[in-house]
TrEMBL record, chain A:
This is Phosphate transport system permease protein. SUPFAM superfamilies: MetI-like. Keywords: Cell inner membrane, Cell membrane, Membrane, Phosphate transport, Transmembrane, Transmembrane helix, Transport. The chain crosses the membrane at residues 6-25, 46-72, 78-97, 117-137, 190-214, 226-251, 263-281, 314-335, 384-406. The lineage of its organism: Bacteria, Pseudomonadati, Pseudomonadota, Gammaproteobacteria, Oceanospirillales. Part of the binding-protein-dependent transport system for phosphate; probably responsible for the translocation of the substrate across the membrane. It comes from the Bacteria. The keyword Oxidoreductase does not apply. It comes from Chromohalobacter beijerinckii. Belongs to the binding-protein-dependent transport system permease family. CysTW subfamily. The keyword Transmembrane applies. It is a multi-pass membrane protein.
Automatic annotation (TrEMBL), chain B:
InterPro entries: DUF3333, MetI-like, MetI-like_sf, Phosphate_PstA. It comes from Chromohalobacter beijerinckii. This is Phosphate transport system permease protein PstA. NCBIfam families: 3a0107s02c. Its main location: membrane. The keyword Transport applies. Pfam families: BPD_transp_1, DUF3333.
Amino acid sequence: MTTNTVFLLFCAVLLVLGGIAFTLSRAKAARVRATGTTMHAQPDQYAWFAVLVTAGPALLVSALGAFVLLLMGADIPTFYLLAASLVIALIGLVMGLNQVRSDFHARRAIEGVIRKLLAAAAMISILTTLGILLSIISEALRFFQMHSFWDFVTGTTWNPGASFLSAAGRGDEGGSAAQFGSIPLFAGTFMITLIAMLVAIPFGLGAAIYMVEFAPLRIRKAAKPVIEVLAGIPTVVYGVFAALTVAPLVVDIAGLFGLDASYSNALAPGLVMGIMIIPFISSLSDDVINSVPNSLREGALALGITKAEMVRNVVVPAAAPGIISASLLAVSRALGETMIVVMAAGMRPNLTANPLEDMTTVTVSIVAALTGDQEFESAQTLSAFALGLVLFIVTLTLNVVSVFMIRRFREKYRVNNL
Amino acid sequence: MSQSFEEISAQLKKRHRRSARMKWMTMGALILSAAFLVVFISDMVVRGWPAFQQAQIQVEVSYDEQSQKLPLAAVDEDVRPLISRGFFRPLPRKMESNPALMGTTQTQWVIADSRVDQYLKGNEDRLRPADKETLQALVEEGRAELKFNTTFFTTGDSKMPELAGIASAAIGTVMTMLVTMAVCFPIGVMTAVYLEEFAPDNKLTQIIEININNLAAVPSILFGLLGLAIYISFFGVPRSSPLVGGLTLALMTLPVIIISTRAALRSVPDSIRHAAFGVGCSRWQVVRDHVLPVSLPGILTGSIIGLAQAMGETAPLIIVGMVAFIPDASISITNASTVMPAQIFTWASEPNSAFAEKTAGGILVLLAVLIFLNALAVWLRNKFERRW
């Protein structure tokens, strides 16, 4: 019997046992109630409780058992594990039937089980974060055992290509040794992020100010969803747009000025990424500007200043924490953006300040390191996790600061819907 | 500090001008953002439209002994180079499975070679002069023309552009999304119900809440790293399969569903809960019988939006190896598979201009699906959402 059939059989038997538990305990509860005894719960609730004690522990044991055995690296004797679980299910069935008594609070017991189940579901999000941290940190540590952390942080040459030679024990045979200096990658990432922000912040903020302060309600209602559509477009589509349409355009325009641009220049992905990020900034800024109390506006206008002066000197300073928070979230988004840069930015690590040259980013290097036909243990593959660790830390910090700023804004103006 | 009336009114004019300028500039920002969307969509439509058309040629195909051995012999020598290799290859098998064909000659429309296709669309000219003449003659006789491209919707990926289609990627997307939703919908709703209805206000609850907000902002590529290190390396889930892709995307979509479900649950007024408690319901009964049913439209809307987001995601899937070359789709969650955005990515990296057209065509299909999903979400919200 294959594992699949054993597993299916297990599920079927468990289902049948559950059904038996349900009918038997329901019948028993009904019998007890028919004798005139008042019970703490309805027959159905006793029945469901019996089902829970039959199936619950059995499923738990089989899942935990499989996990522990996997953790120890042993081959799982599926058959024995599932058989043991079925025995536990039988014991549960007997206990559940036994509990059909007038003094047992079946409903309260079910309530307790459900509460634990829901809490367990809520823990999955914590486990996810832990999973990301653990997986990244453990692999990154292995990388730092091979290459020094200091070189990684301060080195200016990223040349992982030769690492497969050293993995094959031929490290000193010709060619240069693999070098993992991440500064060019981060420089490229920050360059593209900077370009994106130079596009996104003026446009996003401008659109938000117009929608809140100047636009009639009708235009506001129509424009908001249109801008949101920009956020719903998949990033791979933006990538195609950047690579096929914008990059050649940038090269042509640079050519008009007598400049020489690479077809995988940093400007094209930066511009397109900026457009992608406009809705993030505009919708959050819109909410924030909208919740600046009207009394501030009216007070300012009553002093006789014009609308533009009011926006510049009263509304924007009041909303500043929220706007900064939106921009930080947008920066974190831009740093982690992958598809646009993979498709439109270069693959060559290049430490330069000229956005018309090609340069590569952290995310591109992660993808490049993991999609090659490298062994998982090689330094190049592991370097992806080291880069991922830095990316995680930077974006996490930005998010935390952003949450902190928006909380300050919320407390200052007692706004609840942000 | 004294200013004359003239000075002040001159200043005032300037100030009002400045105010108007700000209005126009911010309006310009909004209009340009919207204009970009128009430029973007029209660029994709212009690029992608030709992908829905394909050159076909009417030829006489002779099914006989010779073409059984040498499929190329089935058609006339002069039109041979104009016809897709993909038409000839399955010929012998077709004859074997259908012996009645043997010895007959049939006039049928067959798929033309990609070079013919590109030539007829006016994109590039890589045909030999002799072939071009033949083709011109065929076009004048009405035996070569652009027809609706059914191949694009019925086949998988191919190295021959004229045979490449989106079908296997679409099936892969469906399988992946099934896994994603099967995992993240129940867990997301359960988490939201716990946090909104059951959780005590303690440190642990706060940590979970902060954590969920952080997860929503973690770059998607890091979920790919998690999928690679934990699902593939540790649990041994098969690489490139919809199972590992779906599980990875499920973790990514989880915060979206939790956040929207919480909003939906919060919009249910407390009076409903109080009334249910008042007639003796337990907390779970209140949630199951009263709160969940009325907040279901909101939950579904949020889930559909999360689904649309997951459907367009590519980066984590590249990391777990879902950019595979899949000519034939298999309806299984453990076989290697690809998804629509990954297919677009693969085509975009092909240098051939015929594939550039496929890329944009794939994008149009993907965008159409996403627009449909989002419209469905909006419709659901407008139709069923109750305002209290």
